[in-house]
Amino acid sequence: MMDGARALRASLPPEEASARKLRILYHHRVVSRDGQSVHVDDMIAALRGLGHEIAIAAPASPEGRGAEAPRWVAWLKRALPAPIYEAMEIGYSVPAFIRLYRAWRDFAPDVIYERYNLNLFAGIWLARLTRTPLLLEVNAPLAEERARFGGLGLGWFSREIESSIWQRADRVLPVSEVLGTYCAASGVDRSRIVVISNAIDPACYDGIDSDAAKRALGLAGKIVLGFAGFMREWHGLDSVIEALAHPDLPPSLHFLLLGDGPARAAMERRAAELGIAHRLTFAGIVPRNALGRHVAAFDIALQPKAVAYASPLKLFDYMAAGKAIVAPDQANIRELLDHEKSALLFDPQQKNAMLEAILRVVRDAALRRRLGAGARRQIDERGFTWRDNARRVAGLAAGLIKKEG
């Protein structure tokens, strides 16, 4: 599956990407400060770190930073019928194109790099008008996502728009090989699909001591099972709560949860009912610049569920921190982790499989150390850093420029 895309990624030498300093016009529609903004900010920083010039065209400031999702946008999405809201999204392409064209005119870029968004034509329009190569980063099949959650009003039309945009980009950069198959199925030539997963700057975990991180959180001497992310009912975190009450578990096992979400309140209530509230710590939403000091306190890092085509950002934090990872055994996770080498993977379709995997790692300190070391090593072996990703993008851009010339 997607062997051609993987081979192309692996064949890009760092020298090719760094031979020429590029002018890259970076276009996105991200205004929230979440995982999307982490990807945007870290990728831009990595490209600049290689010496490339970046101009940003985005809804926020000229640098695309510091914005919060406008409340009126969320209100409109709730209040309007889905077809009307999506028609307004399509209409947004016009002011977005004007902003993008002005940036292109002022900056004179070598290439356009765009983060794909549903019903957004601006990047394709500019690329065609100016004959500037376009690299399109794809993080999800957004038409399918909206349809699954009942929010796709224009149905086939939005799907056709999505396919059309993907097909017209010079390079399509899905974040997983699984997602690459979606792109190919929509009509994108496989030779133009290059998988570039999410990544991490491993230096952000350098010098962070696990014991010190535990002491800072009042968890000294504990075996810490950790989770970072949005807490949803379908994650299965409630089964971990139930397990903490089992008498066979080491009394030193503690569950540290970073983040928030609709499942949190029920979990807190159930822990109190079982008399184990003292064995859980809900740290709440942790700022990105403090995440390392919290993840460092983990001994075991949990990824309970994952969307089939995602490249979960939290996994790269877990890997960079050198933690023993427990995650579902599915294709996109196997792109990042190897069972028994850098993670313990469980069958997400098998009842209690996640819990059994957790218990195995809890009871085996040598296994925890081996998996943690393997996870950290895999960052370097597979080039899961933003700097490596920037090299890949720059190499692709340089190849397109040479071809255009």
Key attributes of the depicted protein:
11 strands; alpha/beta; single chain; five-stranded parallel sheet; six-stranded parallel sheet; 405 residues
Brief characterization of the structure:
With 405 residues, this protein is α/β, with parallel strands linked by helices. The protein has helices at 3-10, 14-18, 35-49, 71-79, 82-107, 122-130, 142-148, 156-168, 177-185, 210-216, 237-244, 264-274, 288-295, 313-320, 331-334, 353-363, 365-381, 386-404; strands at 23-27, 53-57, 111-115, 134-138, 171-174, 223-228, 253-258, 280-284, 300-302, 324-328, 344-346. The protein has a six-stranded parallel sheet with strand order 8-7-6-9-10-11, with helices on both faces.
Overview of this protein structure:
This protein is α/β, with parallel strands linked by helices and 405 residues long. Helix 5 (82-107) packs parallel to helix 6 and helix 11 (237-244) runs parallel beside helix 12 (264-274). Residues 1-8, 10-18 and 61-68 have low confidence and may be disordered. The protein has helices at residues 3-10, 14-18, 35-49, 71-79, 82-107, 122-130, 142-148, 156-168, 177-185, 210-216, 237-244, 264-274, 288-295, 313-320, 331-334, 353-363, 365-381, 386-404; strands at residues 23-27, 53-57, 111-115, 134-138, 171-174, 223-228, 253-258, 280-284, 300-302, 324-328, 344-346. The longest helix is centred in the N-terminal third of the chain and has 26 residues, at 82-107. The protein contains 18 helices and eleven strands. Helix 3 links the parallel strand 1 (23-27) and strand 2 (53-57). The strands form two sheets. The protein has a six-stranded parallel β-sheet, sandwiched between helices.
